[in-house]
Amino acid sequence: MEKSKMESDAGEMTGLDAMLALEEEITPSSGFLSAVMERVQEEASAPPPIPFPWKRAVPGIALVAGVFGWLGMELVRAGVPAIGQSLPSTVQIPPGLIQPMEQAGWVGLALAVSLASWLLGRRLAGRAELL
Question: Is the model's pTM score more than 0.85?
Answer without folding.
Answer: no
